[in-house]
Amino acid sequence: CREEEAHEAARRAAEECYNCRTHNNCQECGKETPKGWLKCSECREASKLAKATVIEAASLDYCFGAGGEFYHSTDEAAEAGEPYVYASTFTPFRIDFDNIVENILDDHHEDASQHDLVSLNEFEAAVAKFNAAQTSGSYFEDCSRVAHLVTEGGEA
Fold first, then answer.
1. What is the pTM of this model?
2. Is residue 45 part of a domain?
């Protein structure tokens, strides 16, 4: 190709080089956004909200604000000025039996198997009993469900 075309192709390649780039432009609004993202934070949040199913705020005991803040109630979130909250999903503490057995076997010879382990059934029953007894755990954000809150100005 001609020298001008080669120069233009090299310039375009340098501008589009991921390693050289300092930022991206949002694919939706064009706003400058950090290099690792294709959308700005506002457009990502709008997209997440658009996909979520709207639920009643009264149905939530624990929830998360848009910034990931955990709230014990929707009233607490509303007092903090959150216009909406995402639901949460509770996950109790638990032991993964298969993971423990795999870890035990990984520390031994390559032919080691569950058949080499004594009292494995009793251990599995104990783990199941432990897991069933757990009432504490963690709450994780569930962005598939959102509740709009009434703010001090009366907006929902």
1. 0.69
2. yes
